[in-house]
């Protein structure tokens, strides 16, 4: 059947999933707005993403239904947006939905005037009424009726909502938070800590790696056993539960229960980036080998299953896949029954390992997911040192699982998400001595430079093999790239990456900077004008653009001695610092930047060929440190440095040179 709407040629796999809907979808843009004006009808904006389970549910129930589509087409201009391609559109209208309903989520449904002002919205709407929630078609008819008979009311609502949008973009900068803000934030996190199962708060439970990293930052300094308990309990519980893929590595997005047992099965690249970095830091601080094992298995998952030809990394895998009966079910790919385990192991000649495997992954206990079993280690948390028989069983079960229909892959390559992955992989590869990981990080960075940066130097947001790159990159893309290129410079010792970091930092400050109050607007001065221009300040599943930029610019300033980068970072801290003090759990990365600002950076230079001295640096997590080695630059860090010595400096004031690993270790 040929496509019946305009989404077939879009780069987003999520949009193309709707190309054969009977809904007359438009992509976001001028054509849709002009059509709404010409027809004098509202815009129905539907926002989601490829790995979103409830997005698929609503698509099947409503957008694939001829009768529902007929109502949509008759009364609205229907616009589909992939939130991952257009985070500016998503964030703006999510702010409106939250103002109207007090909650948000995806799929998001928003009704707009033809010029883009929102007047009503919500999230998922069912095909039939459920309690106080109307059916989707009832909602469509009600909006159409009001538009036809009482449009003034809708316009008044649109004016009120639009006036309230973009509040972060209008925030006034305040004072820089004090040096004690880290202690205040960690105390609040400690109060919310789940003593039994780790993490913060109840279900659903999200991993929030930036907040645990903040606790680790305080632990490095204080050595507080209570903070060690917060970190170790949470890391052990997350990687023992079903949120962690015990057969293939990698993490699902969150746990629906407080025990980390039942995940929401979608796997997102950004979660792998944040959690690999967290478990790496956990390993370096505690010395526990089991955390390095999680790092290795998760990196293996990303490179194996999300890696694209040429170096880019795909965005996500769906929660849903086909079960044995050909039905699309959440988690079908990942769950087993004891009989399925037995059959797979006996077919692999491992019948003697069946009982051990069933006990190891707790399939000898009652089913934990809709009559099936998610492999877990919840009753032996932190015990992942697999015996040989269990390890062979793991390989056999992984291979048996690979014959099942895989979850859908969102194969678009997002600049921001890939840059976060490059930063993580470069740091992990350097710390664990995995040159192959550093090389993989270089490959991805090279891909981004070649495929997502135009000839005029302007970065783009999203690339897909069939359609190439589209959409101007946002502040978050640029901030993540600054961090990625800086981390690559530290991991490789190559000055080209520091040059790239400076280039993208200058572009970011030129395109997104607010000269009045400081901070980065989400969209560039050359980008599309929405009904409000906002700023991304709050850390969510991804660190915010401004948090990432503040930390990356402070580190870049330390490596280059360019004060202007630090000045811009300080302006971001003044802008967001007041909010961070009030709600520290939403500003973990910004608070890390505040802490770095107050403590100042430690600059480490290893001059000449001294791998033994580099090993001393690798063995520690030094959250306030930057590292220069390999190729020399014109930075003051390198002035007068003698080969085969290491220098530890603060504010470019250095201790005596270290010539042996013991001397360097003592200084660090």
Structure, described:
It is built from 24 helices and 19 strands. It is of the alpha+beta class and about 675 residues long. Strands 1-3-2-4-5 form a five-stranded mixed sheet, sandwiched between helices. A four-stranded mixed sheet has the order 17-16-18-19. Strands 8-9-12 form a three-stranded antiparallel sheet.
Produce a short descriptive summary.
The protein has 668 residues and is an alpha+beta fold.
Number of strands: 19
Strand-residue proportion: 5-15%
Instruction: Kindly report how far apart the N and C termini lie.
Output: 66 Å
Which sheet architecture does the biggest sheet show?
A: 5 strands, mixed
Query: Mean pLDDT, rounded to whole units?
Result: 94
Report the structural category. Answer: alpha+beta
Strands across the major sheet, in which order? Answer: 1-3-2-4-5
Radius of gyration: 26 Å
Uncertain runs are none
Task: State the shape.
Answer: globular
Name the helicity range: 40-55%
Contiguous helical run count: 24
């Amino acid at each position: 059947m040929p496509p019946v709407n305009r989404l077939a040629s879009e780069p987003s796999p999520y949009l193309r999933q709707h190309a054969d809907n009977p809904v007359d979808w438009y992509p976001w843009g001028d054509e849709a707005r002009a059509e709404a004006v010409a027809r004098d009808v509202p815009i129905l904006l539907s926002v989601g993403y490829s790995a979103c389970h409830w997005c698929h549910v609503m698509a099947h129930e409503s957008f694939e239904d001829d009768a529902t589509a007929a109502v949509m087409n008759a009364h609205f201009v229907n616009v589909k947006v992939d939130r991952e391609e257009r985070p500016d559109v998503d964030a703006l209208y999510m702010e409106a939905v939250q103002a109207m309903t007090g909650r948000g989520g995806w799929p998001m449904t928003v009704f707009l005037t033809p010029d883009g002002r929102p007047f009503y919205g919500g999230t998922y709407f069912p095909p039939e009424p459920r309690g106080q929630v109307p059916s989707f078609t009832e909602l469509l008819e009600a909006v159409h009726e009001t538009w036809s008979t009482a449009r003034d009311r809708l316009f008044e609502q649109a004016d009120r909502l639009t006036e309230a949008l973009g509040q972060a973009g209008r925030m006034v900068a305040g004072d820089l938070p004090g040096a004690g803000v880290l202690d205040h934030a960690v105390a609040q996190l400690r109060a919310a800590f789940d003593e039994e199962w780790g993490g913060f708060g109840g279900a659903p439970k999200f991993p929030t790696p930036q907040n645990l990293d903040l606790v680790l930052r305080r632990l490095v300094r204080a050595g507080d056993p209570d903070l060690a308990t917060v970190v170790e309990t949470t890391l052990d519980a997350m990687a023992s539960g079903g949120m962690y893929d015990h057969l293939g590595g990698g993490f699902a997005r969150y746990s629906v229960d407080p025990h980390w047992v039942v995940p929401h099965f979608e796997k997102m690249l950004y979660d792998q980036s944040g959690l690999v970095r967290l478990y790496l830091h956990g390993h370096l601080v505690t010395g526990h080998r089991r955390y390095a094992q999680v790092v290795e298995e998760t990196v293996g998952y990303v490179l194996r299953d999300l890696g694209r030809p040429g170096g880019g990394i795909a965005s996500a895998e769906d929660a849903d896949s086909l079960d044995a009966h050909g039905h699309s079910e959440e988690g079908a790919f990942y769950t087993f029954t004891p009989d399925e385990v037995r059959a797979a192991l006996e077919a692999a000649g491992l019948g003697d390992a069946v009982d051990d495997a069933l006990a190891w992954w707790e399939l000898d206990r009652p089913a934990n997911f809709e009559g099936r079993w998610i492999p877990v280690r919840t009753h032996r948390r932190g015990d992942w040192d697999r015996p040989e028989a269990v390890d062979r069983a793991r390989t056999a079960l992984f291979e048996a699982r690979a014959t099942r229909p895989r979850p859908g892959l969102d194969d678009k390559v997002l600049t921001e998400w890939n840059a976060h992955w490059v930063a993580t992989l470069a740091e992990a590869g350097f710390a664990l001595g995995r040159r192959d990981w550093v090389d993989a990080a270089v490959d991805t960075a090279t891909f981004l430079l070649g495929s997502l940066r135009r000839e005029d130097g302007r970065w783009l947001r999203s690339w897909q093999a069939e359609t190439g790159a589209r959409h101007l990159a946002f502040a978050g893309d640029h901030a993540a790239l600054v961090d990625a290129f800086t981390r690559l410079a530290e991991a490789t010792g190559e000055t080209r990456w520091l040059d790239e970091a400076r280039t993208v930092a200058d572009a970011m400050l030129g395109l997104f900077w607010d000269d009045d109050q400081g901070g980065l607007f989400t969209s560039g001065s050359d980008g599309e004008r929405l009904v409000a221009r906002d700023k991304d300040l709050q850390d969510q599943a991804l660190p915010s653009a401004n948090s990432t930029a503040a930390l990356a610019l402070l580190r870049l300033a330390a490596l280059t001695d360019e004060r202007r980068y630090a000045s811009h970072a300080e302006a971001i801290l003044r802008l967001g610092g007041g909010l961070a003090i009030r709600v520290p759990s939403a500003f973990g990365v910004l608070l890390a930047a505040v802490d770095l600002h107050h403590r100042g950076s430690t600059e480490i230079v290893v001059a000449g060929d001294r791998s033994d001295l580099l090993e001393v640096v690798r063995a520690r997590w030094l959250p306030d440190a930057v590292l220069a080695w390999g190729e020399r630059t014109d930075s003051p860090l390198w002035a007068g440095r003698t080969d085969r010595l290491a220098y530890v400096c603060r504010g470019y004031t250095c201790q005596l040179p270290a010539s042996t690993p013991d001397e360097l270790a003592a200084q660090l």
